[in-house]
Specification:
Helix 3 packs across helix 4, helix 3 runs antiparallel to helix 7 and helix 6 packs antiparallel against helix 7. The chain is mainly alpha-helical. It is 79% helix and 0% strand. It has one domain. It is globular, with a radius of gyration of 16 Å. It contains eight helices and no strands. GO terms for molecular function: endopeptidase activity.
Length: 177
């Protein structure tokens, strides 16, 4: 399972860095913090969907494209893998390369948000949302010093969002017209 991810890193001479990241685990004390970030991101997303029809439409269009053919178990993988991979890239690689402090977290959050505009279904509100959650994951990484925490929080936030969409139980109510 790691081979498709690891092979390019090994080819590019980054095997030591990859081994370091794969050896990082999530500690018990940080699990509560990770869960708090997941709960905060999920609640904020739900509220934003309830208040901003454009954000809800954009989120639903993205979810429909990615999740329509998925079973609930598939949603776990479709949500978790990209979320974790984005954190390894943005918070685990780019953030420390820019500046291993709040400046790196700010720059990576902004870049993360702007990249979400490349999808034509996304709106400026979606980009602002991605910037905000990117900042939250960056703050989590800086606080714990462990990219695995940010990866776990992002993966679980995506899974909560995807399952909410797929199962319909936690979707935001219709936005008033």
């Amino acid at each position: 399972m790691v081979a498709p991810i690891a092979s390019p890193a090994v080819w590019l001479g980054h095997a030591d860095a990859l081994q370091h990241y794969l050896s990082q685990g999530v500690s018990s004390p940080s699990l509560a913090l990770d869960a708090g970030v997941v709960a905060g991101v999920s609640a904020a997303r739900w509220c934003l969907m309830a208040l901003v029809s454009g954000f809800k439409a954009s989120s639903n269009a993205s979810n429909a494209q990615a999740l329509s053919a998925c079973s609930p178990l598939d949603v776990v993988w479709v949500g978790a893998i990209p979320g974790a991979a984005e954190e390894w890239c943005f918070r685990g690689g780019l953030l420390p390369a820019i500046s291993p402090d709040w400046r790196g977290a700010a720059v990576t959050a902004i870049v993360f948000g702007l990249l979400h505009l490349l999808d034509r279904r996304r709106t400026p509100v979606s980009a602002a949302w991605a910037t905000g959650v990117g900042a939250a994951y960056g703050a989590l990484y800086l606080h714990t010093g462990n990219v695995a925490d940010a990866a776990l929080a992002h993966a679980l936030s995506n899974v909560v969002s995807g399952l909410g969409y797929k199962l319909g139980g936690t979707q935001a109510p219709d936005t008033p017209s």
